[in-house]
Write a structure and sequence with these properties.
single chain; 819 residues; eleven-stranded mixed beta sheet; 25 helices
Length: 819
């Protein structure tokens, strides 16, 4: 083991050409020039001291070539897994165990008109995507010629990076689309509890009377239907046998598999953790009439998994016709949120559109490849796939499709088949975030709106501000029209022809706002359709709880003279509205139990802020889940508790506000008894974790952020510590604007702001950003974990935009010359 530990440590050390991997070169040289095939003119990559690459090119092709090159030098292992999992090419590297995962992934590839697809994202979409892929491939060639610079994951797994095509960035499975999983869950809930009970227990916005579509038997719907769907999106964990070419011993390969699985799943699919809630976000845009400078301020912090490496990748692109800075994902050209020299824009998920429907078919007992459609039998279309497999002949697999989409499950015994209809599989331009390329060049509201009318997925609340002082909001989406009154899209439907989409809502009819009289716009994934919006009946019904947006509006509603620091503080605002409501009841409670009595004393004096040094915050964080559990037990019948789970927090607060007979013959007294019992349960768990001394109950003693390197289990303890990160206490919780959802087992934060921006519109160099833990995934790089402390503690870095500002923040430079 020590031999291999030394070998790993050596691989992680900087080499002679380490500048490209993120380290200073020999003698501390931070400037390099290399000749690079594929370029037409020289390109400068000025990387600032925080790790953000500012790319200066003389033409569009070289700009996106260099963006691909830069992303690869920082995130090559992450990019290679993204491509392999998304394209269904895992077995090529990792062997036969991944054949079925590859087959499942290939069900969700876009198979429509590629020319229309490319053109939807940008008039020169194909050229941009080609240049971006060529840049990644150029780095792959370079690192293969300099194998000492391969990221250690490749060396330890005995694999090597593969090549990209212009189609690679069109992968669909990583988009935050909905709602096949919730259709199955709702069907199971109705089967267990009945429509009326589920209606009463759920939260549906806008309000709707639940109906089971005619011909659907909800008792036949189960989670097995989604096995291929989940296999494609979530993948599977590695095992030691997946790495036969690794130089490690068998026991070490097992540790490698464990470490890489955890990191891969987190960085590829933020929904991999079943304890994690939906991923949500905040943004706002403030008119100059409310700011100290008279210029708009735009802020945003999209919430996703907090992982190493980060999901987000920051970059600045500068070439004729392009000058945009912000963040996107490393696998995509352009940026999905940020600003150019005229406008700023930032996103949150907009839950208006339901892009998925699960179809249930009767199949022909005499021929299971036929399904009943409009009174006859229709044959499934089949596609033969050849899946490369490491060390073996290619595996032949057949994919099946109905007229609605890929067949994701077949039940030969019950003569049923299930297919997914998804707007993103049949409509061009629906790969996630790529339509932001049009926004990157938009110069005004009209061009922004035109770009958003093609921004189909994910559905986004995109806020806007420009140098002329305008602010706005556009709810971008692609929304299928479901013409039947008993068809909301919330449940599976028969595939017999009775339930067919009638096209899509024209994007010019999507909701938008421009210069509202309030002087600001804020969104936080809440139900935010305008009261007079004519297409509410098309809306999805699952939105985020309103606590974060209500708190944002509390802060902004009457504020004047706002500056950038005010938006930074708001992004780190830790006041919990549910805590304010729940703690109000504590003021009327008393207990003879000394521990519960002390907890009540702390709650009664609390300001409802979940700060790291707050002992009352810790009491509340142990109390709330016990309250939710006990109130849910009052209302959710036992036979449905497993499939339904707990009530939403907002529903629990509603039940507490108007207690009924479920609390007992004297409901208000019953409520008090429940709250005290829940507090007692919570305090037993708190004292088990932190002891009985209230001085040791600070929230930050439990709630924290920290990362280990993916290879920590194989490294010497000193090296593992060096390549991990410090532990930082973190404030906030799941309901605060500073959203910090944590893992129950160890209180480590697992989701929250994947990126933050606060933009001074027009005075661009005054803008600020955050990412975590760093721009690079390579522990040899100074940009590997350098951003984590600021992200955890509220310190921002400059969003350097002018060349002068970039040079004042310079970390290192790289010139790519055509060869």
């Amino acid at each position: 083991m020590r031999t291999f530990n030394r070998k790993i440590a050596a691989w992680l050390a900087c080499g002679a050409v380490a500048l490209l991997a993120g380290c200073a070169g020999p003698g501390g040289d931070k400037h390099a020039t290399i000749d690079m095939p594929g370029l037409t003119q020289p390109v400068e990559i000025l990387r600032d001291q925080h790790g953000v690459s500012h790319i200066y090119a003389q033409n569009q092709h070289d700009l996106f070539f260099a963006q691909g090159f830069s992303a690869a030098r920082d995130r090559l292992w992450q990019l290679d897994l993204w491509r392999r999992q998304g394209e269904g090419k895992m077995a090529e590297q990792f062997g036969p165990r991944f054949v079925e995962q590859d087959r499942a992934a290939r069900l969700f590839l876009y198979r429509g008109d590629l020319q229309a697809e490319f053109a939807s994202y940008h008039p020169e979409g194909q050229a941009i995507l080609t240049a971006f892929a060529d840049g990644i491939n150029a780095y792959v060639d370079w690192v293969k010629a300099n194998p000492e610079q391969l990221p250690p994951e490749f060396k330890l797994t005995g694999t090597e990076p593969g090549y990209w095509s212009p189609q690679t960035s069109l992968i669909r499975i990583y988009g935050l689309t909905r709602n096949a999983t919730s259709e199955v869950k709702l069907a199971q809930q109705i089967a267990a509890l009945g429509v009326n009970t589920v209606q009463d227990l759920g939260v549906y916005e806008p309000p709707i009377a639940l109906q089971v579509p005619a011909g659907l038997n909800v008792s036949q719907i189960n989670e097995n239907i989604l096995a291929d769907y989940n296999l494609a999106r979530k993948g599977q964990k590695f095992e030691a046998g997946d790495f036969p070419r690794s130089p490690l011993a068998a026991a070490e390969r097992e540790e490698l598999a464990r470490s890489l699985s955890a990191n891969m799943l987190a960085s590829l699919d933020p929904a991999f953790d079943p304890m994690a809630p939906r991923y949500e976000s905040n943004n706002w845009t403030i008119s100059g009439q409310r700011t100290a400078t008279g210029r708009p301020i735009l802020a945003g912090d999209p919430h996703r998994a907090i992982a190493m490496p980060s999901l987000r990748y920051m970059v600045h692109l500068n070439a004729p016709g392009w000058n945009v800075i912000g963040a996107g994902e490393p696998a995509l050209p352009g940026v999905s949120m940020g600003h150019n020299d005229r406008i700023a824009f930032g996103l949150t998920i907009f839950a208006f559109a339901d892009e998925e429907d699960l179809y249930v078919y009767d199949t022909n007992p005499a021929n299971p490849d036929q399904y009943r459609y409009r009174g006859g039998w229709e044959s499934m279309r089949s596609v033969d796939e050849s899946i490369p497999v490491r060390g073996q002949a290619a595996a032949a697999r057949q994919l099946k499709f109905t007229r609605h989409g890929p067949v994701i499950h077949e039940d030969r015994v019950a003569h049923k088949a299930y297919a997914l209809r998804a707007a993103y599989l049949e409509f061009p331009g629906t790969a996630a975030y790529l339509a932001s390329l049009r926004l990157n060049q938009a110069q005004n509201w009209q061009e922004f709106v035109a770009g958003m009318e093609r921004h189909y997925t994910p559905s986004e609340n995109m806020v806007y501000a420009d140098v002329d002082g305008n602010i706005g909001w556009f709810g971008g989406s692609i929304a299928p029209i479901r013409p039947r009154k008993d068809w909301s899209g919330m449940l599976p439907v028969p595939g017999n022809g009775d339930y067919e989409w009638n096209g899509f809502l024209p994007t010019r009819s999507l909701p938008k706002a421009f210069n509202p009289p309030e002087g600001y716009i804020a969104t936080a994934n809440e139900y935010n359709l305008p009261y007079d919006y004519p297409y509410k009946d098309m809306s999805g019904r699952a939105w985020a709880e309103p606590f974060r947006v209500k708190r944002i509006r509390e802060v902004l509603a009457d504020a004047k003279g706002l500056d950038l620091e005010a938006s930074q503080h708001l992004q780190f605002d830790n006041l919990s509205l549910p805590a304010r409501t729940l703690t109000g009841y504590a003021k009327t409670l008393n207990s003879t139990d000394p521990v519960v009595g002390e907890a009540l004393r702390l709650l009664k004096d609390w300001d409802y802020r979940t700060e790291v040094d707050s002992d009352a915050a810790t009491v509340y964080e142990f109390w709330l889940p016990e309250v939710v559990k006990r109130v849910s037990e009052l209302y959710v019948p036992p036979q449905g508790s497993k499939v339904f789970g707990n009530l939403a927090t907002i529903k629990v607060l509603e039940k507490l506000a108007t207690p009924d007979a479920a609390f007992g013959p004297r409901p208000e007294q019953g409520r008090s008894a429940l709250l005290l019992a829940a507090l007692g349960d919570g305090m037993r768990k708190l004292t088990a974790a932190l002891g009985t001394d209230p001085k040791q109950w600070e929230w930050g003693r439990l709630h924290h952020i920290q990362f280990e390197h993916g290879l920590a289990g194989l490294l010497p303890s000193g090296t593992a510590k060096a390549y991990g990160t410090p532990r930082y206490p973190v404030s906030g919780d799941n309901d605060t604007v500073h959203r910090a959802t944590f893992r129950k087992s160890d209180f480590r934060q697992i989701s929250g702001a994947s990126y933050r921006q606060v933009i001074d519109v027009g005075n661009w160099d005054n803008s600020r950003i955050q990412n975590t833990p760093g721009q690079s995934a390579d522990p040899r790089s100074p940009y590997y974990r350098n951003l984590l402390e600021g992200w955890a503690t509220g310190k921002y870095i400059p969003m350097a935009f002018s060349r002068q500002k970039v040079e004042s923040e310079l970390g290192d430079t790289l010139v790519l010359r055509p060869r």
